[in-house]
Amino acid sequence: MNHLCVAHRGFSGIAPENTMAAFKLALEQPFVHWVELDVQLSKDGVPVVIHDFTLERTTNGIGKVKDSDWKALQQLDAGSWKSAEYRGEIIPSLAQVLDLCRGRVSLNIELKTAGDMYPGLEKAVLREIVMRGMEGEVVLTSFERAALRRAKELSPEIRTGLIIDARPDDLATQLEQLHCTFLSIGYPRLDRNLMKDLTGRGIAVMAWTVDDRRIMRRLSSMHPELMICTNWPDRWEQVFLLSKHRMWHYIRKLIR
């Protein structure tokens, strides 16, 4: 299906982002094709799924993710900030999310790092992926270009993608130099010409983060292969699936 739906940090419009509750809710939607998530390392080297470098916004913890070991991170409440319904949700490990999603949905795994913040992050993430034979089900993405290079050095066959919120003139060349076949880009940076150029080069393009139905419709007119990343997958369904249903219903009436 065109305009594949990517659930941003799971179904994070309803459930707390990057938790098992958000991922399970996304998987319950038959139109969700991809799930996006963020990975960092605990102090003792466990790949954990959380967006911020600090704990305060989405948990009841304090400090940096990298300064807490896995056992301590598991004790934190990562759900109450969203609503009382999700009290007790924990920070999941990458292993737990991979086990949940394997064979069911593709994963856009963001390597959440900056500089040398997480030595060994790429190796730890790849170990979990390879252990499960999921190399063909994931793309590793990052703002940090060095992380993408390291991932490719460790696993030349793994698919990688640059995350960017800019529009450099030589973007296609940059992607080629990084050996990236995926681009995650802030949606205001996109237009028809860029989409045509990149898809013609074999680059898959995902627009983030789109929660407005009108913007989804506008983006959909640029190119049929543009992927839409959203916190609200149900809005994607309303724009694309329900619109197609209404169109087919109208056509059937015309030909009767």
Automatic annotation (TrEMBL):
Annotated Pfam families: GDPD
Organism per entry: Paenibacillus peoriae
Record GO terms (molecular function): glycerophosphodiester phosphodiesterase activity
Enzyme Commission number: 3.1.4.46
Annotated protein name in UniProt: Glycerophosphoryl diester phosphodiesterase
Presence of keyword Lyase: no
Keywords: Hydrolase
Top EC group: hydrolase
All copies of domain GP-PDE, residue ranges: 3-240
UniProt xrefs under Gene3D superfamilies: Phosphatidylinositol (PI) phosphodiesterase
